[in-house]
Amino acid sequence: MSGAPLKIELTPQEAGKRLDLVLHQRFPQFSRARLQDWIKEGRVRVNGEPRRASYLARSGDAVDVEPAGLAPLHAAPEEIPLSVLYEDQDVVAIDKPAGMVVHAGAGVHSGTLVNALLHRFGSLSRAAGELRPGIVHRLDRYTSGVVLVAKNDAAHQRLAEQFASRQVEKTYLALVHGSIKQDRARIEKPIARDPKQRVRMTARLATGRAAWSEYHVLRRFDGFTLLEVRIGTGRTHQIRVHLASIGHPVVGDRLYGAPAKIAGQPTLPRYFLHAHRIKFAQPSTGQPVTIASPLPTELEAWLKQLI
Fold this sequence. Notes:
The chain is built from six helices and 15 strands. It is of the alpha+beta class. It has three domains: 6-65, Roll (Structural Genomics Hypothetical 15.5 Kd Protein In mrcA-pckA Intergenic Region, Chain A); 74-165, 2-Layer Sandwich (Pseudouridine synthase), CATH 3.30.2350; 166-307, Pseudouridine synthase, CATH 3.30.2350.10. Strands 5, 6, 7, 8, 9, 12, 13, 14 and 15 form a nine-stranded mixed beta sheet that branches. Strands 1-4-2-3 form a four-stranded antiparallel beta sheet. It has a two-stranded antiparallel sheet with strand order 10-11. A hairpin with a 3-residue loop joins strand 5 (84-87) and strand 6. Helix 1 (19-26) crosses helix 2. The longest helix is centred in the middle third of the chain and has 12 residues, at 153-164.
C-alpha cells in the first residue's frame, strides 16, 4: 500500500545539499530513515532517474517521491544466537558481537539484538517503546561487548535512573594509533554532530553536549597503545571522537581518521573498541553487580600480531 505521489522542484537555496536532507526538510512528517529507505527502494526519482541519498541537489531538479505504506511499528522475534553473560529476574547482560545493530533504524529492520532477544526471552520491558523492548543503553554497531537489557518496566526505570545519574560504571578496551604520552588522563570536551559530515560527531566545536572520558595505558606496542577507558557520559561515538581529538584514533576506525591499511598487519574488519566491563546496582535489591566480557578472539589475535 502506497500513499499519494509527491512532486517538488528544488530551489537555488537547496542546491548542494544531500537529497535525503532536502527531502526531510520538505517532508518533515516522514523520518529521514524512512526517506532513505524509499531512496534505496527506487521510490525517489530525480529528473526521472533514481539517485542515492548522498546525491547533491541542483537548482531546478524535479523530484518525484512515491511513499510506501508504513511498516508495522514493532520488533519481530528472530532466531539469532546470543551469548548471555548474566541473567536474573530483572536484567539480562548480552555479549554483543561487532556488526550487530542493537535495534531497528536507519534502514536496518532485521538481524538486530532486539530481534534476537525477543526470540530468546519473549517478553521484555516496554518502557523504551515497541521498537526497543528492554533496551536501556546502546553500543555502536561495530563495538562489541556488554549490553544490559531490562526484563520488566520497573527494572528498566531503575536502570535508566542509574545511567542518567552516572552511577553505572562503563569500562572499555581500545587500541589506538601512536604512543600516548600520559599513562593516565581525562578528556573533557563537548560532543556535537559534525556540520560538514553528518554521519560523524566532533569534539572540535565550542558547542555540544558535555562529555568526559578517562583512560589509562594497559600496554604499549610499537606504534600503538592499548587503553582501558572509562566514560561518565554516553554520547554518540564518544570514545572514538575523544581519542581521535587528541590525535590517537582507534585502530580500524576510518570514520575518525584511522588508516584503512597498516603495513605488515592484516586488515581489521572492524574497529578495536570493546565494552569490557559494566558495574551497576541490581534493580530490585540494590546489590552491586559487575559483568565482564572477554576481548573477542579477532581482537585478541590482532593484538598478538603486534608482539
